[in-house]
Every structure is written in structure tokens, then in C-alpha cells.
Amino acid sequence: MLLCGTYCEAMDQLPPNHHGDNNAKFGGPIGYLCALTMTIGRRGDGKLVTKLANVTANDHVLDIGCGPGTAVRIAASTGATVTGVDPAQPMLQMARLLTKIRPPTGTTEWIHAGCEDIPAPDDTYSVCWSLASVHHWPNLDAGLTEVRRVLRPGGRFIALEKQSPPGADGLASHGWAPDQADRFAAILHDFGFELGQVENHHHGRRKVVTVSSVLT
Ligand SMILES: C[S@@+](CC[C@H](N)C(=O)[O-])C[C@H]1O[C@@H](n2cnc3c(N)ncnc32)[C@H](O)[C@@H]1O
């Protein structure tokens, strides 16, 4: 098995999880503020992945690092069953509140967990995605091992990140430069996924990149 950290260091590149040590804020009081800001302008991301993954009422979708749950509710509006997991309680509290205010057609479920330890049996989900979150995963190998375990063979996986200019810092660095998206596609392949398709998209003023693949 390829160790992502070692691989990226050898390539002298930023790994796709370059903010993996920058997560404490999500779980503390400032997490509520982060959750609020993430309710703004993210609907386009949720609609995009729901469309790219062809989500239908027959799907069981897993959203890793779901934040306040925008994409979960959009996917559930197709009638699908959708599970949001996040290690930050403020995010899950906001997600539950917003879902109570405007419940979607399908079933939603919220689980307090990180990508490295997903409390679900093997082969549970037909679709899994992670939006603006992979760059925060502390351990890419552990996270992808779990994605592979809980996704059914033939299941679709999508990682979405904001397009980030190479060498960006501050808020602008919270996404992927083109080489990080390509690197993530290669890493996915090493984890038993089909070679990922890297695509750029924009909706409104938001520019994002997706890496989409299927578990073989
Ligand atoms: C920038 S937010 C994105 C939230 C949501 N996906 C969205 O697009 O609105 C990043 C999310 O990743 C979550 N996160 C941090 N560490 C994580 C981990 N180890 N596993 C899964 N998610 C994690 C954070 O708690 C946060 O909710």
C-alpha cells in the first residue's frame, strides 16, 4: 500500500490533505461560526455532486465531513437515504437544526465520526463524497481505507475542493491546486478505484474541482 505522505514528500508537492492539522477550530466555539458561514453559497456544490453521482431514491449516500449538511439535504431531496458524518459537534448540531426546519423527502442520518473511523458495516453505501473536506483529513491513508471498506464494489466516490491557485496562502489555500487534484486521483487509483476523472466547474463565482471515481 502506498503511503500518501511519503509519496507526496518524494514528489516535492503539497499533499492533498495539506490542512490536515488545522481542524481544532471546527469543534470549538468558533465551529458554530464556521458552520454558519458554510450554509452560504454551498448549494451549488451539493447540486453538482448529486448530479455527477446520478443520485436516485435507490441510493445510500455517505457525505464525509458534511459540515452543516447542505449536500446531505440536497441529495436526500431525490428520495435517497443520506448519512452525514463529521467529527465536529457544532457542524452536526447546525445540520440537525437546519434539517428539522426544512426536512427533505428522503431519510437523513447524522453520525459523529471522522473519516478514519466510520461506524458502518462493510459495503454499506452506493455513493460516497467529501466536499471541501479531504484537504482537512489528518490521515489520507486511513480515510481512504475506510471509504473503500464502507463503499460497495461499483460505488461512486467524489471529492470536491475549491480551486486554489498554486502557492496560495490563507483562506485561498483551502482547496486544491491542479497538481493536488491530479495527485489525489492517482492516490485513489492506488486504493483500488478506477483512475479518477479530474474536472473543473464553476457555479456563480465559485470555482471547484472534482475528482470522480468508481470502486472496482
Ligand atoms: C470546510 S468544511 C466543509 C463542510 C461541508 N462539506 C461543506 O462543503 O459545506 C470541512 C469539514 O471537514 C470536517 N473534518 C475535519 N476533520 C475531518 C476528519 N478527520 N474527517 C472528516 N471530516 C473532517 C470539518 O469538521 C468540517 O465540517
In short:
The chain has helices at residues 4-10, 24-27, 30-37, 43-52, 70-76, 89-101, 140-150, 178-190; strands at 60-64, 81-86, 108-112, 125-131, 151-162, 197-203, 206-214. The chain has 216 residues and is of the alpha/beta class.
Task: Jot down its keywords.
disordered N terminus, globular, binds S-adenosylmethionine, seven-stranded mixed β-sheet, 216 residues, Rossmann fold
Characterize the structure shown.
The structure is a single chain. With 216 residues, the protein is an alpha/beta fold. It has a single domain (4-214), classed as 3-Layer(aba) Sandwich (Rossmann fold), CATH 3.40.50. The chain is 34% helix and 24% strand. The protein contains eight helices and seven strands. The protein has helices at residues 4-10, 24-27, 30-37, 43-52, 70-76, 89-101, 140-150, 178-190; strands at 60-64, 81-86, 108-112, 125-131, 151-162, 197-203, 206-214. Strands 3-2-1-4-5-7-6 form a seven-stranded mixed sheet, with helices on both faces. Helix 7 links the parallel strand 4 and strand 5. Helix 3 packs across helix 6 (89-101) and helix 4 (43-52) crosses helix 5 (70-76). It is globular and about 40 Å long. The chain starts with a helix and ends with a strand. Mean pLDDT is 93; it is low at 1-11. Bound molecules: S-adenosylmethionine. S-adenosylmethionine is lined by residues 23, 26, 38, 42, 45, 64-67, 70, 86-88, 91, 114-115, 131-133, 136-138.
